[in-house]
Amino acid sequence: MFRIFLLGVFVASILTVSSPAIGHTVFKKELTKKYSKTRVSCELCHVKGKPKDERNEFGELFFKKMKDQDLTKQWEAFGENAEAKSKFEKETMLPAFVKVLDEVKTMKNKEDITYDSLLAEAKLPGLKVKKPGAKSTDDDDEDDDDKGKDSAKKEDKDK
Q1: CB of 72 within 8 A of CB of 21?
Q2: Count of other CB atoms within 10 angstroms of residue 121
Q3: CA nearest 75: which of 90, 64, 58, 63?
Q4: Is residue 51 helix, strand or coil?
Q5: Which of 92, 100, 123, 132 is the most exposed place for a label (fewest CB within 10 A)?
Q6: What percentage of the chain's residues is helix, strand, coil (to nearest 5)?
Q7: d(CA 42, CA 23)
Q8: What is the Cα–Cα distance from 31 to 110, expressed in whole angstroms?
Q9: CA distance 126 to 134
């Protein structure tokens, strides 16, 4: 009985300490589409092994430009309505992401290289050059839970 109590305390502490965010695979899929020779993982924006609210240099650029739009909050407000979430992703989130991507890819990193070049050459964390004959879908990596699911139904951690 005491073990069950400890397990409950542990789970409660995890839930209250962690600050979850929603991962929008729609962003990842758009990057995969634009940079078709690369595989994109969550580590493109997030620091591997750290909470998803901890972003790398590239992820911070997006976060700073998108945080005031409250897209995640709006997306979450649709609750379990997958159709509404999907529509919101396509009509609101994706255009906002593409606009910020167009801005960010012209920017340069600390080494004075444009992010467009780094993306195209898979020279950022979370990017790998696709092997010849690899699938063009997002389901070729292990870092998220979108395998075979509608993007509006899945909730991995992100922006």
Answers
A1: yes
A2: 14
A3: 90
A4: coil
A5: 132
A6: 50, 10, 45
A7: 9
A8: 22
A9: 17
Please state the pTM of the whole predicted model: 0.67
Nearest to 143 by CA among 127, 132, 130: 127
Residue 97's closest CA among 145, 50, 12, 40? 40
What is the spatial distance between Cα 152 and Cα 91, in angstroms, rounded to a whole number? 13
* CA–CA gap between residue 121 and residue 127 (Å, rounded): 9
Ranges of beta strands (E only) in the chain are: 38-40, 127-129
Grade residue 1 by pLDDT with cuts at 50, 70 and 90: low
Residue where the block lists tokens 């073990």: 3
In this prediction, residues 34-43 reach a mean pLDDT of 89
Tell me the Cα Rg of the chain.
17
